[in-house]
Design a protein that fits this description.
Cms1, Protein CMSS1, alpha/beta, P-loop_NTPase, Rossmann fold
Length: 203
């Protein structure tokens, strides 16, 4: 009889824990937290573009949007700091910076999902940028007219900002992309909700 008592107790506990486990649903943030960041590949961006434009453009138009793999530089293999990665993909930066004399344009454009992240990246590229001029291209505390005036009057080499503000500057003819040689996407960084820039519907 005593053995029966000892047998039934752990069984009851097992049932209770099993029910508790069933109740707890997995959140998307839990799944994302466990997934390790991967270096981006050209196919990732191509797939996103074709998904985005699939309903709005014809097959021929989507084909025209496709960029060849030669347009892409190697992604950060996640062992680099931001400065060392930029040095690797852009070894002739000093020459490019020296030759850039145009207003309303940038040689390098870094696109990320928030103003705070933009500031973080500007700080982390100190070793790479040298004495070149960097412009903040986000909406937080900075009016678009101020940015347009700065671009018109001065020569800037690097712009770091958010997709919304960069798009607005291009549309309002405040930023010309003709002399832009590099577009860097902050691919793996996640916000508080663990979304990457490309997971945000507005982007």
């Amino acid at each position: 009889q005593p053995t029966e008592c000892f047998l039934t107790q752990p069984e009851e506990k097992q049932e209770i824990t099993a029910k508790a486990k069933k109740r707890k649903k997995k959140k998307i943030s839990d799944i994302l937290e466990k997934s390790a960041p991967k270096p981006g590949v050209p196919k990732d961006l191509q797939d996103l573009l074709s998904q985005h434009f699939a309903t709005r453009r014809s097959v021929i138009e989507i084909e025209e949007l496709k960029l060849s793999d030669s347009c892409f530089l190697p992604a950060n293999d996640l062992t680099h700091s931001f400065s060392s990665y930029l040095k690797e993909i852009c070894p002739k930066w000093a020459k490019l910076r020296k030759n850039h004399k145009e207003t309303k344009s940038l040689v390098m454009l870094v696109i990320c999902s928030s103003a705070l992240r933009s500031l973080e990246l500007i700080k982390s590229m100190t070793a790479f940028k040298g004495d070149c001029r960097v412009l903040k291209l986000f909406a937080k505390h900075i009016k678009i007219k101020e940015q347009m005036t700065m671009l018109e009057k001065g020569v800037f080499h690097i712009g770091v900002g958010t997709p919304g503000r960069i798009k607005a500057l291009v549309e309002q003819d405040g930023l010309c992309l003709n002399s832009t040689k590099y577009v860097i996407l902050d691919w793996n960084w996640r916000d508080q909700k663990l979304r990457r820039m490309m997971d945000i519907p507005e982007v």
